[in-house]
Amino acid sequence: MDKVQLPEHPIFDVVSKAASELGTDAYVIGGFVRDLVLKRTSKDIDVVCVGDGIALASMVALKLPHRPKVSIFKNFGTAMLRADEWEVEFVGARKESYREHSRKPEVEQGTLDDDLKRRDFTINALGISLNKQNYGALIDEFNGLKDMKRKVIRTPLEPGITFSDDPLRMMRAIRFATQLGFDIDPDTFDAITENKERIKIVSQERITDELNKIILSPTPSYGFKLLFVSGLLHLIFPKMVELQGVETKNGNSHKDNFYHTLQVLDNVAEVSDDLWLRWAAIMHDIAKPDTKRYSPKVGWTFHGHEDRGARMVPKLFRDLKLPLNEHMKFVQKLVKLHLRPIALVKETVTDSAIRRLLFEAGDDVDALMTLCRADITSKSENKVKRYLQNFDKVEQRLVEVEESDKLRNFQPVITGEVIMETFGLKPSKTVGELKEVLTEAILEGKVRNEFDEAYAFLLEKGKEMELPVVKTLASNEKGE
């Protein structure tokens, strides 16, 4: 029997002694063992005992020098405590049975063998003994070690039953394959395809949690390809599936926007771990199917797909149960602006266009440029190189204009309150119009964003609109 060297931490020895005093057997099980074998860092330890997991947790807490608090979850028969940086969860060995319309199992006490059988994949059905007679021995009843060496995801039991019982495991199979760079065993993958409709009984929150883990993987496109081929993507994110395919008319074809999107996602993943920037990559062309048009003169067009896509983002986030907060607004902004830097690669680009981009992108301009660079996916290396060099020039212009004009997240120095006080106005459409005219003048470089100059411009515009001046303000009255 193989033995595994456990990390040097007293928690393992303490659990061993506590289990011995309680007359029970204890094992480290699951993901911690998998990651230990794969030499991946993990601080979450699952301990299974053939008996009362809560009693074992309480005994362990008494034996640890810092006497950690034990969090008990009676409904699940589990307990959890922290030992330094480790989070340790205790549970009694159990066996499970499932009903057709629920992924919540009926649970009863069981043996170690029962507990290992209920695990989702062989690589997660490994255990390490903490018992005196065979401390450190690897428990591997389903050849999980062999599957790890082969880099294969496989279920311990018949995969059709495994996925029908708990359909979320189909998402987890693809997630683990993507995170670890493993293949999915052919029979296991066939069972995912056959049971894909069962995903409908899983909550959207749980599905999206797994989807986010796929997106955060080193090469997320691999997971999306598995989701697509299995048919799961059609059920959990149909709008993304609509991107797939190439249409040809009169010998003119457009590119496959699904695979283009996956390439953009991988390009972003190479340079950023930001989940929301990766979501922006996924959604940047999401409206192309809705805006696709063909003209014999110009070929295929997707006019306005950036604006349409930005309007789609809130509903997509709502459907996917993603947060409707600043993260959604960030993705929406990048989808809306993702074509703008491409339009700035011309030598004749004006400072006003640069100012406008800085103003609209604000602090997200660097993320926007990362997305735009990732969006260059031509098969022609020379074309990609040329575009990226152009982006270098745009970024240099952005830096120069920002340094001179300080336009990132700028607010006009003339506020709505100043406008109302000057012309004796109440909050109204006129105040908004004046503020917008002033903002445009600053962005166009006609007026500097300084009080005296901007205020003189305001008075001139008020005169044009035949607005009486009630009070003329000086800069020092506004704290300038």
Automatic annotation (TrEMBL):
Domain HD/PDEase, chain residue ranges per copy: 253-377
Keywords: ATP-binding, Magnesium, Metal-binding, Nucleotide-binding, Nucleotidyltransferase, RNA repair, RNA-binding, Transferase, tRNA processing
Keyword Metal-binding: yes
Entry annotated with the keyword Amino-acid biosynthesis: no
Pfam families linked to this entry: HD, PolyA_pol, PolyA_pol_RNAbd
Single biological process term from Gene Ontology: RNA repair
Required cofactor names: Mg(2+)
Annotated signal peptide: none
Gene3D superfamilies registered for this protein in UniProt: 1.10.246.80, Beta Polymerase, domain 2, cca-adding enzyme, domain 2
SUPFAM superfamilies: Nucleotidyltransferase, Poly A polymerase C-terminal region-like
Molecular function terms, GO-annotated: ATP binding; metal ion binding; nucleotidyltransferase activity; RNA binding
Family: Belongs to the tRNA nucleotidyltransferase/poly(A) polymerase family.
Protein name as catalogued: HDIG domain-containing protein
